[in-house]
Write a structure and sequence with these properties.
Rossmann fold, 3-stranded parallel sheet, about 325 residues, 6-stranded parallel sheet, alpha/beta, 2 domains, 12 helices
Length: about 325
């Protein structure tokens, strides 16, 4: 969700050279972005030697400006030792001294979307933003597109309307549950022209097998089989994307494919699919703003679990008429 900020930067400072620092495996979300001149990729876990080599690399670049979109421990150390002439970041307790320009992370009143929050440090450079652009994830490479074409052909769904269904969840707070997903897939037996493709991480493979085994509807699984750009390519060829608030949801938001998204404890005001053709399903529980996905005071995750398969199915029909 930082990619609109990158677009704004390049459009307003076309002569500037932009370098993006990113962890594996998320390089796929930025490598090939036409507004980036360089991408520095680092491993999620580094030893001390690798970390100091990275600092030396950054210092050699002699950056005029460093924008810290992250604010985490490693990003803070890199900011501190970067030797950049101007450092911009968020007002985080015990880290404000790191930055020359400090931006509030949240407004005093109301809510702010994460995309808008990432554009605010860019505005600190004196850039006026009339309209924030959409998400920008690079297109799949030729071989990645061929992989998706082969997947569609091998599973004999090339003449069908494809529904991409994300079955994973970042944590138990956002896990709609296997039974709900199976019930939803069974409702699509009323739409024989549809073919459902399950997506998720490697750890979702067993869930995918269970869904396929118990569903009355023919389902194909791509769980654990796709890279991030390949996932975007698959979604871009689909009729509809369905799933929870998640990383794949934001990848889907970068395509023209319509979305049906169910939200639990997270708020659409912060994390809705940015500028996407989407229907959002949520339940209005006051506790959503306070649980912070640490503890459910009811212990039943009702903000998500009270969303029924029928509600999700009916929302899908709007895009399938």
């Amino acid at each position: 969700m930082t990619t609109p900020a990158v677009t704004v930067l390049k459009e307003n400072l076309p002569q500037a050279s932009l370098t993006y620092l990113v962890e594996e495996p998320y390089r796929e979300l930025v490598e090939g972005n036409p507004f980036l001149d360089n991408v520095i990729v680092i491993q999620k876990k580094q030893n001390t030697k690798d970390f100091f080599n990275l600092i030396h690399h950054i210092r050699r670049e002699k950056f005029d400006v460093l924008i810290d979109f992250h604010g985490g421990p490693r990003a803070s150390w890199l900011t501190l030792f970067s030797n950049a002439k101007l450092k911009i970041g968020y007002k985080i307790i015990n880290k404000r001294f790191l930055y020359d320009i400090k931006i509030p992370r949240s407004p005093k009143k109301g809510q702010i979307h994460s995309v808008e929050n990432h554009v605010n440090p860019v505005k600190a450079l004196g850039i006026h933003v009339n309209s924030i652009p959409p998400l920008l994830i690079p297109e799949a490479a030729k071989e990645e597109k061929e992989k998706i074409s082969n997947f569609i052909r091998e599973n004999k769904i090339e003449d069908s309307r494809i529904l991409v269904l994300h079955i994973g969840a970042g944590n138990r707070f956002r896990d709609w549950g296997t039974d709900n997903i199976i019930a939803l897939t069974n409702l699509f037996s009323k739409n024989p022209e549809m073919k459902i493709v399950l997506i998720g991480a490697s750890e979702d493979k067993e869930r995918a097998k269970e869904i396929i085994r118990k569903s009355k509807f023919r389902i194909v699984s791509a769980a654990g089989k796709l890279g991030l750009r390949e996932l975007k390519e698959l979604i871009s060829r689909a009729t509809l994307f369905v799933g929870p608030d998640s990383g794949p949801m934001h990848i889907a938001a970068s395509t023209d494919t319509p979305l049906v998204i169910y939200f639990g404890p997270t708020l659409p005001a912060h994390f809705s699919p940015w500028k996407a053709n989407a229907t959002i399903i949520e339940k209005d529980f006051d506790c959503r703003t306070s649980c912070r996905q640490r503890e459910c005071i009811f212990e039943d995750f009702r903000c998500l679990q009270t969303i029924t398969p029928e509600e999700v199915y009916n929302a899908c029909q709007y895009f399938l008429l």
